[in-house]
Amino acid sequence: MTSSRVAIVTGAGRGIGAATALRLAADGAAVAVLDVDAQTAADTVERIRTAGGTACAVVADVGDPDQAKDALATVEAELGPPVILVNNAGVIRDRPMEELSLDDWNTVLDVNLRGPFLMCQAIRPHLLEQRWGRIVNFSSSSALGNRDQANYSAAKAGIDGLTRTLAIELGPYGVTVNAVAPGYVVTDMTARTAERLGMDFTRLQQMVAAQTPVRRVGRPEDVANAVAFLVGEDAGFVSGHTLYVTGGPMR
After folding, report:
1. What are the residue ranges of helices labelled H in the chain?
2. What's the pLDDT tens digit per position in 219-250?
3. How far apart are CA 149 and CA 4, in angstroms?
4. What dihedral do alpha carbons 14, 15, 18, 24 form, nearest 10°?
């Protein structure tokens, strides 16, 4: 990656988002750590600065159009025009379809699908002005369908369509748009899933690893490495693609 390019990583306070922010900063980008939680965003920024990188914290709800626009303005004022956007922020509200409330549906769609759309829309003028850019959206293996995740699966399937469409629209301006689709990765979110299922988190990881071709579960850094490739110069002819980071083929 060219040094000093400005990147935005949403949901970067912890987990995959934090790992991605740290990786991009290590590669030379100035990173805006965007999260709804001011403390975790500040923690990630501190880690980046301690390692010698450049970063700022931005508190925003990506599902709110005004906050998305304000976030872009803050990033430009703090670090310069952003040309890399990683739409990692996500939430789950897992329940069987008959138990899903409208609030469960709206919350998941707002953060996981509406949010990336709003952030892409907000950064678009910067990308067109620079005639270069990288967008990486977060899909999921759940886009293929997963029990108790009608809302989440629908949002992530929507991300795949959004990614391909924006790749077509923005390609003539030197902008690539791709998605990563993590499989089972050890994060706070998957820990909450284990709790919901009434399972020991370590035991659940062991069960998943036994069914994964590489015989281990994913780490946040595994996904961050894939994002780092997609936002780099070497991925300039890769666009409209969803890269599955799952430790093996999806059935």
Report:
1. 15-26, 38-50, 65-78, 102-109, 115-130, 150-170, 188-197, 201-210, 220-230
2. 999 999 999 999 999 999 999 999 999 999 87
3. 39
4. -170
pLDDT at 3: 55
The residue assigned the tokens 């995740």 is: 149
At 235, list the tokens. 């991925």
- Let me know if 152 is a catalytic residue: yes
For residue 105, give every residue at least 6 positions away whose Cβ sits within 8 Å of its Cβ, in sequence order, or none: 93, 150, 151
| Catalytic residue (choose from 152, 173, 184, 244) | 152
Residue-level pLDDT at 187: 83
> Reading across the β-sheet that carries 82-87, which strands appear in turn?
54-59, 30-35, 6-10, 82-87, 133-138, 175-182, 242-245
Q: Residue 159 contacts by C-beta under 8 Å, 6 or more apart in sequence?
A: 112, 113, 116, 137, 138, 139, 143, 179
Q: Which residues pair with 86 in a beta bridge?
A: 9, 136
Taking the chain (251 residues) in runs of 10, the rounded mean pLDDT of each run is 82 97 98 98 98 98 96 97 98 94 97 98 97 97 92 97 98 98 87 81 87 91 98 97 91 63
Q: 70 and 93 in contact (C-beta within 8 Å)?
A: no
